[in-house]
Amino acid sequence: MHAVGYAAAHTDAVTTRVVGTAGHVDHGKSTLITALTGTDPDRLREERERGMTIDLGFAWMTTDEGVEIGFVDVPGHQDFIRNMLAGVGSIDAVLLVIAADEGVRPQTREHLAILGLLGIERGVIALTKRDLVDDTWADLARGEVRAALAGTALADAPLVEVSATARTGLPQLVAALEAVLGAAPRRRDTGRPRLPIDRAFTMAGFGTVVTGTLLDGELHVGEEVEIAPTGARARIRGLQTHRRALETAVPGSRVAVNLSGIDKDALARGMVLARPGTLPATTALAARIAVLPGASAALAHDEEVKVHVGTAEVMAKVSVLEGDAIAAGGAAWAQLRLADPVAAAVGDRLVIRRPSPSETIGGGAIADLAPARARRRADTVAALERRAAPAALPRLLASLEVPRTAAEAGERSGLDAAERDAAVAEALASGEAVALADALVARPAFEAFATHVLRVCAQGHRRAPLRAGVPREEVRTAVGLPAKRFAALVQRLVADRRLAERGAALALPEHRPQLSPAQEASWVKARATLSADPTRPPSPAQLETDFGLDRELVAALGERGDLVRIGTEAVYLPETVARFADAVVGELVATRTITVARARDLTGSSRKHVLPLLQFLDDHGLTRRQGDDRILVLAPDDARARILALTSQQEKDR
Ligand SMILES: Nc1nc2c(ncn2[C@@H]2O[C@H](COP(=O)(O)OP(=O)(O)OP(=O)(O)O)[C@@H](O)[C@H]2O)c(=O)[nH]1
Ligand SMILES: [Mg+2]
After folding, report:
1. pLDDT over 50 (residue 113)
2. Which of 38, 307, 490, 520 fits as disulfide partner to 316, beta carbons 3.0 to 4.6 Å?
3. How many CB atoms lie within 10 A of CB 562?
4. pLDDT recorded at residue 106
5. pLDDT at 80 (0 to 100)
6. Residue (of 228, 104, 196, 96) closest to 154 by Cα position
7. What is the model's pLDDT at position 14?
8. Exposed/middle/buried for 311, CB within 10 Å: 0-12, 13-18, 19+?
9. Which of 25, 30, 54, 81 to mutate to test the pocket of ligand 1 (most atoms within 8 A of CB)?
């Protein structure tokens, strides 16, 4: 049978399927796999000596129909359930083996429960050791098996009577497997390959090898990989599926990866091989945990349990988010705080076991990785429920409670690239999400940011009524967004006229610097002095000593349009600037150029006072220096319009 597999060796296109065994100890799983494949999956000496499976075994066959099936053979003994769990996590279908002479036994039921928790819904039942029983007994056994399957996803699974030793029923069993696998969906490919490692060893002539069932994407010879959660790096030197060398391994196949640049001791079952940086490690998970109806006791808050996810096994503390415990047969949201980090993805199934006496108690699908520790339980539960929603859009939106890139959001909500892109487009089109530079954020979260910005501005205006606004950076720090995302937020709020930019400050659009009555009185006095000799105004220092107009007050008056500040050293009334500019423009129209001396004479001012005014015209693009003279840059009418704009209050407030 292997020969057929090798015949197809050079096309990577062969689809392989993975079937895991399950069933009570000694019921004949390994013997049946040997009969089907010609390979004894019990490879350890101890296993052969004791006649029992201890750890996972692997074998494969190609059916006459050309279906290549990789088998993962699991131990039935209850002491090795942890190994069984590492093997059945990512199979396409189960081969549930029940000995006809013994019928349904405790681990038949426990394995069935585990398959249910892992969401494995396809399979074939092998009623084996048929040679040991007569027809009446076989009928009874069949009835017992159907009763045990009732209510499970395998209730209608095909049941085939076989004998591995007498080799009866084997073709029928293979046909049943082909039919079940033919109906199984293709494995998803999200372009983010990960291989939960089930074995790591050294092979003479090759070096370090890890094996597992590949999920979610392809692996290629030559690429660099990361071992999560340790972060160690290695390079793929070779790939094999069923001993066949490949350039590319596809999702859903059993893969042996020959690694360079890493020692076997740095690898172990439970770790995950993935593209660098694509699989974050986490020490906390959230899931809706279903507790098995047969559990010996409710799952209590703060209980210590073992969590199995992928091929990993880790101790965890349960934080029940609804009520104080999850009763047998019940389900509730819980957070699991892990003793050690694991690398898992949203949507992955997990199984919870009690350490002693050892017992499978329940499980669920991961809804969130690394959730913040819950304070308000009701909120947390509502958020998790959204995140676990079946449709892509609500799941995406649930992950956008904080700004994330599309890639981050897709990963967090367990969507593949196509689902994610469609959901992103839909969310943006409907306005349920808003783009902020490189990120997206759900509308309610966007509104929360907006409110925060406006509140910081309002508080700033109240604290410093004289100021034009609150320094941008101060608002950004308060809101806690990175620069680009904050800039995008501000841009949106300004476009919607909910916020105004005032130089380097941000303000509510209606905000005007407010003077106290005493400050207004000072201003009236200062203004009288400024009007008395407009082209020779007092310096800012004089304004402060004589009238109490400090820098901030001058800035506020400038903002209000009562003063024009030129540089830091000169202050004029707007009408003075306007009159001066008009006179200069008039002169330029007549004579084309103007000198500083001429500008001084025209306005009856001094050189000291005229220089900043001329500078002002240069700065605002009305005039330009040419040698010692100035020339007009704009057409006269445009120049006059600009003067008006620069010195009239309405324009400043825009
Ligand atoms: N007569 C008979 N004996 C069988 C058959 N299949 C298995 N056996 C015997 O049953 C015993 C247990 O078989 P295994 O294949 O090791 O059982 P297992 O389910 O793999 O056991 P664990 O892996 O330890 O859970 C062995 O002695 C087999 O020879 C069968 O079809 N007929
Ligand atoms: Mg076995």
Report:
1. yes
2. 307
3. 18
4. 94
5. 94
6. 96
7. 59
8. buried
9. 30
SS (H, E, C) 166-226: CCECHHHHHHHHHHHHHHCCCCCECCCCEEEEEEEEEECCCEEEEEEECEECCEECCCEEE
Number of other CB atoms surrounding residue 539 within 10 Å: 13
Share of the chain above pLDDT 70, in %: 96
Cis peptide before 357 (omega within 30 of 0): yes
Evaluate: CB of 165 within 6 angstroms of ligand 1: yes
User: How many Å apart are CA 519 and CA 525, to the nearest integer?
Assistant: 10
pLDDT mean over 69-76: 97
287 CA to centre of own chain: 16
Share of the chain above pLDDT 90, in %: 60
548 has a pLDDT exceeding 50: yes
Tell me which residue has its CA closest to atom 2 in ligand 1.
129
Q: Tell me if residue 508 falls in helix, strand or coil.
A: coil
Q: Which ligand has the nearest atom to the CA of 41?
A: 2
Residue whose CA lies nearest to ligand 1 atom number 21 = 26
**95 Cα to the center of ligand 1, angstroms:** 14
Label residue 374 by pLDDT band (50, 70, 90): low
What does the pLDDT average to over 264-279? 95
What band does 379 get if pLDDT is binned at 50, 70 and 90?
Answer: confident
Q: Is residue 111 in contact with ligand 1, taking CB distance under 6 Å?
A: no
> Which residues, chain by chain, have CB under 5 Å from ion ligand 2?
29-30, 53
Q: Binning pLDDT at 50, 70 and 90, where does residue 505 land?
A: very high
Q: What are phi and psi of 308, to 5 degrees?
A: -110, 120
Nearest to 241 by CA among 231, 251, 226, 232: 251
Distance (Å, whole) CA 499 – CA 511: 10
Residue with the smallest CA separation from ligand 1 atom 10 is 28
Question: 131 CB under 6 A from ligand 1?
Answer: yes
Closest atom, ligand 1, to C-alpha of 51? 16
| Max Cα–Cα distance, the chain, nearest Å | 127
* HSE-up (13 A, CA, CB side) for residue 156: 1
Please tell me the distance between residue 29's alpha carbon and the centre of ligand 1 in angstroms: 6
Residue 2: its pLDDT value, please?
36
3-class SS at 396? helix
Which ligand number lies closest to the CA of residue 22?
1
Q: Hey, what amino acid is at 602?
A: L
Ligand nearest to the CA of 80: 1
**To the nearest whole number, what is the mean pLDDT of the chain?**
90
**What is the number of the ligand 1 atom nearest to the C-alpha of 162?**
31
Phi, psi of 586 (to 5 degrees): -60, -45
- Count CA atoms closer than 13 A to 258's CA, side-chain side: 18
Helix (H) or strand (E) holding 366: strand 359-369
Distance between CA atoms of residues 362 and 292, nearest Å: 5
Taking the alpha carbons of 545, 551, 555, 560 in that order, is the dihedral positive or negative?
negative
pLDDT at position 649 is 54
3-class DSSP state of 164: coil
Q: Taking each helix axis as running N to C, give the angle between helix 392-399 and helix 417-430, from 0 to 180 degrees, rounded to the nearest 10.
A: 80
Is the distance from CB of 292 to CB of 328 less than 8 angstroms? yes
Joined together, the tokens standing for residue 579 give 């009159």
pLDDT of residue 4: 32
pLDDT at 10 over 50: no
Using alpha carbons, select from 552, 458, 556, 474 the residue that is nearest to residue 510. Answer: 458
What mean pLDDT is predicted for residues 618-632? 89
Please work out whether the CB of residue 53 comes within 6 Å of at least one atom of ligand 1. yes
First to last CA, the chain: 82
